[in-house]
Amino acid sequence: MYNREEEILEQYEIEIRNTTRGRGAFICDTNRGTMLLKEFRGSKERAAFLYGILEYLSGEGFLAESIVPTKDGELLSRDEAEDKFYILKNWYLGKECDVKNREDILATVNKLAYFHTLSRRYDKEIPRFLVAQQDGLLQEYEKHNRELNKVKNYIRSKHKKNQFEVLFMQVYDSYRSQAMEVTNQLKEQLAFLSGEDKKQMYGLCHGDYNQHNVVFSQGECALLNFEQMNYDMLVSDLANFTRKILEKYNWNTGLGMDIITAYDKVRKLLPGECRQLYFRLAYPQKYWKIANHYYNSKKAWISGRDIEKLGKVMEQEDERRQFLEMLFHFTS
Question: For the chain, which terminus, N or C, has the lower number of CB atoms within 10 Å?
């Protein structure tokens, strides 16, 4: 009896030598090199756009995955039995970006800046479903602020508070103040940004830029997993990657500024983008995330992991403030 993936792969003009499972997908050894088969939950329109942009990047000499059409020229294959769609991509085997290696980190940032430079030149029409709302980040922060207030009111109403709740309330006013200040500054910037400024700051973003989606293969750096691509402020990718790295490095100011400088050397950051980068890193995202997890979990049993994460956020606060102060001066 065939395995499910073998039945799906019969829809392609390739010879399969071997398949192995890996991270919710199938890595395929074929007569045309290594490929990856994974379920695709997006629309056919999204698949068509991804095919086009990836072909464009390839034509520009940018190393990234590409989509392999079926025998019938379709971009998605179908599992009739389970009514699911799959996508087959040319793949790169290698070493992921090592977050303990500064050279890997900076090379990954260079790759991002180069990708953004090319994505700004892409002249095909951008589908509406890819375009983020121009005030999307502001709406997100305002929603987070309401949620933080909801958690605070819930904990305050309790007569007996556990260890997590005591810690949460100890630092609530400080983080609430930070959240409101960043939200107000962001609102002010959006009100005064010109249409031309916004146009220069937007472009095609990877949407999930992290160390797992950058692979060093045979001395080259390949970018993978574009399924979350959107059209947004380009610094959203840079901010997300920078935050993930700095949380692992106790908000090391030197490394943080090296990351931003490395990006800026490849693609010059505009003043408005620098301010956006500050807003995205200055908002107490980790504190909100922990609070949101607590509120949406069974509160009769408090996760020791939540207590540990909140404690770490508190321990890193001085270093985080030092980095943000340096970044603020950089963006002024």
Answer: N
Fold (topology level) of 4-91: Phosphorylase Kinase; domain 1 (3.30.200)
Report the DSSP pairing between strands 84-90 and 66-67.
antiparallel
Q: What is the H or E stretch that residue 67 is in?
A: strand 66-67
Q: Which amino acid is at 327?
A: L
pLDDT in tens, 272-330: 999 999 999 999 999 999 999 999 986 666 778 899 999 999 999 999 999 999 999 88
Same topology, domains 4-91 and 102-331? Answer is no
Question: What percent of the chain lies above the pLDDT cut of 90?
Answer: 86
Rounded (5°) CA angle 71-77-80: 120
Nearest residue to 75 via CA among 112, 46, 110: 46
Q: Is residue 91 helix, strand or coil?
A: coil
Measure the CA–CA gap between 173 and 154, rounded to whole angstroms. Answer: 15
Task: Read off the pLDDT of residues 12-34 as tens digits, 9 standing for 90 and up.
Answer: 999 999 999 877 899 999 999 99
Give 1's pLDDT tier (boundaries 50, 70, 90): very low
Q: Which CATH class is domain 102-331?
A: alpha beta
Block residue for tokens 């490395």? 262
Cβ atoms of 313 and 288 closer than 8 Å: no
Strands 25-30 and 33-39, bridge-based pairing: antiparallel
Q: Are 113 and 254 in contact (CB under 8 A)?
A: no
Per domain, the residue ranges of the chain are 4-91, 102-331
Tokens of 6: 């073998």
